[in-house]
Fold:
Amino acid sequence: MPLSVTLINYSGTPEKIISAAAKLCYSSSGAKDVLEGLTPEKTESFIDMLSTIGHESPIEHASFTFAIEGVSRSLLAQLTRHRLASYSVKSQRYVKEGQFEYVTPPEIENLPEAKKLYIKAMEDDQRVYNELTDILMKKHMDKLLADGLDEKQAKKSAEKMAIEDARFVLPNACETKLIMTINARSLMNFFHHRCCNRAQWEIRDLATKMLALVREVCPTLFKNAGPSCLCGACPEGKMTCGKIKEVREKFKM
Structure:
């Protein structure tokens, strides 16, 4: 399953809300009156001002929710390091992986010998997972029936108990789905780190697609978003990709 990301929700009028918060900081307007007079031109002016002076806290008032599919559990481990976000993830504890989908790295996909070995590893993982589930389920089923549960309830509980332990053999490649909600300031930080050429390929692809989506609804706010080198020197030092001109051209609006 290919990577898919959709912007399924965002806070009302993000740029206007951010501008209202900024206006409250820099004018004598009352809290109830901050939305008055915020024309598109003034909204854009406030957003640009915040970017120029580096005042980031007002942009926390806008949030964005993404539906993400076709990503690996390996990506999930990286994604959840961005802690100022909320995640709801397909559970391997409650959802049986009857025939799990998996993500194949491009370097493996393009090398027949490696791809053949990779597919075999995925098939072996599925087989072992299924066998473990069956063995554990029988054990739990027998005990639950002996304890007096009816067959339907015993089967349901036994399967849940079985896959809870069988999932330990599933690979990092296993595909997962999630909903992610994040405020604009944290999203900017996410783009700084994950749109960079030095980011791992899968999460870089995800971040680039997410940036394209939010630029459609908030072009002023995110016009300079992307890897850190868009607005300054590369922060990677000796580890730089050395392609700053190409990167800036790629992310230019």
User: Anything to note?
Assistant: The mean pLDDT is 92. The chain has two domains: 4-89+175-251, 107-169. DSSP finds nine helices and four strands in the chain. The two ends are 29 Å apart (CA to CA).
